[in-house]
Amino acid sequence: MNTQQIIETESKYTSGVYTKRPVAIVRGHGARLWDSDGKEYIDCVGGQGSANIGHTHPKVVSAIAEQAARLGVATEVFYNDQRAMLEEKLVQISPPLAKINRVFLANSGTEANEGALKFARYHTGRTEIVSMMRGFHGRSFGSLSATWEPKYREPFAPLVPGFKFIPYDNLEKAAQTIDENTAAVILEIVQGEGGVRPGSREFIQGIAKLAHERGAVVILDEIQTGFGRTGKMFAAEHYDIEPDLISVAKSIAGGLPMGAVLISERIRKLEPQIHGNTFGGNPLICASANATLEVIQEENLPQRAAELGEYALGRLKRIESPLIREARGLGLMLGVELKVKVTPILQALLERGVFALPAGPNVLRMLPPLVIEKSELDAAIEAVEQVLAEQERQVDK
């Protein structure tokens, strides 16, 4: 199929819930993507954070092929070698202070958050959840109820009752809201969809302490920040806190669909049949995840993200443009808050061969694979600088 046929066919049959860019991606390697016309792009979308090890990493490709030829399906009714290895690895690499000793495997970030919310209510016997303004946790009913953005919530109201929202980075409001009815506090260390906003150390540590003092569970949503993205294996390691449940997904399996809840020893034993799913812990996906975690460790991608992220953020902060309000981020999770709408900027970057993301109406977000070369990162940032200069000239007219 040529480009036009791909676009026309998908446009005819797709659900309609996605806003698509006018490009058909058919191949990828490392931090590069190619469309159906052969045009090459630098990928700073990174599968919306699911391509930390880049595209078509040979170790993961090999692991998937070998497992597909051996066994693709075995539900958690049975034990499995790939699942056992993955669960052990996840416990071993989890933040030491969290004291993780169990893992629930699912298929997405939304499912991971659903599991975490259920486990928190089960553990505490309480019903209320405290979530953050600008927070994003998924689109199923439970995770959507913890998500702030009204445009996602309002078409499906009423949602699950018992969810309260407080301003992010406001410890005083947290102290007023967390009480004897609170089952859990759920938050992101860096708000991704909410504008790439890292929380202050005082707030992150303070709200975790408050929650524990008042008998509530701390759920860290590390779906976007996990597996090296922020310069540590998990963002929690920057803040020295003790989460009870950590929801992860995106890059856990090299881009294949998987989510997980990392469960602390502080959470009481989960009884059989209280939760589950058909495809969680699928051997094929577990094989991909095992290979992915080996790549992340062997290639020291968290350290690479820390070094390249510091460099990239410095470059973004030095861009002299009156259209920039602030550049911020942690590791290779980068955001540029603009004084103009971000959509025209993204469109102009695409034309220059760079893919990037929005994070709200006026924040440019960059989530490149952690394997990106410095030269590729330089080219992407130079494109941002050039596009902003062009946009500035148009504004001046």
Describe the structure.
The longest helix is centred in the C-terminal third of the chain and has 23 residues, at 374-396. This protein folds into 2 domains: 3-53 and 300-396, Aspartate Aminotransferase, domain 1 (Alpha-Beta Complex), CATH 3.90.1150.10; 59-298, Type I PLP-dependent aspartate aminotransferase-like (Major domain) (Aspartate Aminotransferase, domain 2, 3-Layer(aba) Sandwich). The model has no long low-confidence stretch (mean pLDDT 97). Helix 3 (58-70) runs antiparallel to helix 10 (283-298), helix 4 (81-93) runs parallel beside helix 10 (283-298) and helix 11 (301-318) packs parallel to helix 13. The strands form 4 sheets. A 7-stranded mixed beta sheet has the order 4-12-11-10-7-5-6, sandwiched between helices. The chain is 38% helix and 19% strand. It has 13 helices and 17 strands. Strand 8 (190-191) and strand 9 form a beta hairpin. It is α/β, with parallel strands linked by helices.
The CATH superfamily name of the largest domain is Type I PLP-dependent aspartate aminotransferase-like (Major domain)
Series of H and E elements: HEEEHHHEHEHHEHEEEHEEEHHEEHEEEH
CATH architecture of the largest domain: 3-Layer(aba) Sandwich
The level-1 CATH class of the largest domain: Alpha Beta
Strand content: 15-25%
* Average pLDDT number: 97
